[in-house]
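Field reference: sequence -> structure
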Amino acid sequence: MERPELKSCEVVIVGSGFAGSLLARILAVQGYDVVLLERGTHPRFAIGESSTPLANLSLQRLATRYGMADCYNLATHGRWLAHFPEIGRGLKRGFTYYRHHPDQPFANRGFDSERLLVAASPHDSLSDSHWLRADVDHHFVRQAIAVGVDYRDRVDLTSADVAPDAVRVSGTRNGAPFELRANFLIDASGPSGFLARQLSIPSGLEKTETRSALVFSHFDGVRLMKDVVPGMPEGPYPDDWAAVHHVIDEGWMYSLRFDDGVTSAGFLLTPTGIASLKSSATSDAATLWHAMIRRYPTLETAFAEATPLMPVSFLPAIQHRLTRAAGERWAMMPHAYAFVDPLFSTGIAWGLRAVERLALAFESAAPNRRVPDPDVLAHYDAALAAEADQIDRVVAGAYEAMAHFDLFVAQTMLYFATVSFAEVSQRLAPKESAAWNGFLGVGDPVLEPLPLEALRRLRRITQRRGEIGTSKERRDFTEWISQAIGPRNIAGLAEPARRNLYSVDFDVLVERHALLGMSRDQLLEGLPALRGMGPPARITSSRERGFCPLPGELLGRDLL
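Structure field:
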């Protein structure tokens, strides 16, 4: 029997998606000996493609703290195009929603259409991007290798032993056995992946309300909605250059257009939605896809000449949740720990927030231990648990509200009020400790309770899935949302006069300066940075900058 190759290192990271590769690179920059393990090879397809302003703020903070200029340049669509035109991406100006009804074309009723546009940036150069993950993940792997990460692909892991003094990981690469001895193990693989199996971590899926299946692919030849439904009132940005959501009776469909014309599209279908289809329509992924497209005439027109660039795939259940995200000598990235649904594009932002947190945790490690403090890991674990709950409540409420568009629009205002307040706060008063701010309103006394209360109210209105309540009940819910988000509504959301077309409105922001705890003059002083007119960030090398461990209170010890 062949003897395994033996190697000692400080950190083993399993999974080389963007989160695993970025964290490996940062730890190497900090001086850690890191091994990054990958089951497959790059470039490779991955879903989870839509970035957001909070994700890009994390990228910028990582760039400036750890001397990674590429991360800074990938944080806006304009800089991405200027510096990395070879890496695939799509312009994402905001979030677009349409409500479709079976066997009926989308009804263009002007400003009374079932249509919602919420801008996330003031213009194209500052906008977010859809990430072509095959290109982006491959880029981050190459950058990790360049700073000394020991990257190994085509790896099949067989066991992991987490002991009080060390971690041992065994596996094979191209059939040859190896064994790694490390101080710490990070699972950045997929749903309930390697570490969950090795440590027998129980499922916590019963805590997740949302349930959906996914049928998806990448397509060429998808028509723009502006061409399929001409004459819609002008919005704050072109409808199609966004994360486009088609809300349907069975769930919803996403459509993400890349700059080269390729479209990533997928249906998220509820159990009730799938059950409503004929069994012949669900016999295989391609049949299910075409059955859904044919059910909605406007979507059928948009995809009439579309060609899938890979086989259509079907995932019957995309939710997963574990009962723990960290322990002594190990931690999980969010996607390995829990996933809810792509509605509201939380995946990339949440993953990058975890990269920041673990990077800071290692940075502050005692020199004689070289692993994160147990108290910090405990707070990391608690933070991810609270944030998984929060994401689920926001998404579950949106699914509950989909039966009637005015309820759905009101529910989205919870999300947009939360993230716009967080984004502007972080841009105007940047702090390195922002990584430990609770994601999606966790820890905010105004925002944190709202998703659970909204879900409770929606269920009281809908009674059961498919019912929509009376018009008065729906109006009361909309008014409650408007009042509830008021103390954090710096973006002028939930205002009927806007006709569901929300631009980035700096005048409203200045008018509501007090909500940010700032004077009018203080806010005016910060406006150039929000408009993209401030000086570019100075990206220093790690040697030039040096590292100053942050005090414990900035590492999440007072997070919850």
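Note: The chain has 19 helices and 23 strands.
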